[in-house]
Write a structure and sequence with these properties.
Layout: E1 3-10, H1 12-16, H2 20-29, E2 33-40, H3 44-50, H4 60-67, E3 72-80, H5 82-90, H6 103-107, E4 116-118, H7 122-132
Bound molecules: adenosine-3',5'-cyclic-monophosphate.
């Protein structure tokens, strides 16, 4: 299994409910290691740039407004198959469809306020990590 890195964001609905630690415990319990982390308030410009691939989707403006509505915790996670592993522990985008025990099944409020983001492929993981972190900020 390849050792990979993936970008994770703990979203404003989760930070507002003080769930950061419980979500990190789930990530670590799934075999992922936090190798970089910062708590930030995204600007509209940064959130729009991050979700640029979704710009044409009907939910884009609401998604950006939500992502800037409070602090987020941006992380780089490392581990064997980290991208797929993180997506497994996150659960489906829509919490109503997320498997029991996953982060979204336990904590997400709805498809938009779904508590966490995780990169979906190696190329996007590399882009998303570079969007938020300098190489020197990632300590494996
Ligand atoms: P995320 O994994 O961060 O990627 C895009 C985000 O858009 C997604 O999680 C959801 O928070 C949000 N979103 C809102 N509505 C939808 C929708 N109908 N389909 C997919 N994503 C949605």
């Amino acid at each position: 299994m390849p050792v990979e890195r993936t970008l994770s964001i703990i979203k404003p609905d989760a930070t507002a409910r003080n769930l950061t630690g419980r979500i990190i415990a789930k990530l670590e319990g799934a075999g992922l290691r936090v190798v970089a982390q910062k708590r930030v308030r995204l600007s509209r410009e940064v959130a729009e740039g991050f979700y640029a691939v979704h710009r044409a989707r009907p939910f884009f403006n609401d998604l950006v407004s939500f992502m800037i509505s409070g602090p987020v915790v941006v992380q780089v996670l490392e581990g064997d198959n980290a991208i797929a592993r993180n997506r497994e522990v996150m659960g489906a985008t829509d919490p109503a469809k997320a498997a029991p025990g996953t982060i979204r099944a336990e904590f997400a409020e709805n498809i938009e306020r779904n508590s966490v983001h995780g990169s979906d492929a190696p190329e996007t993981a590399a882009q998303e990590i570079a969007y938020f972190f300098a190489g020197t900020e990632i300590v494996g």
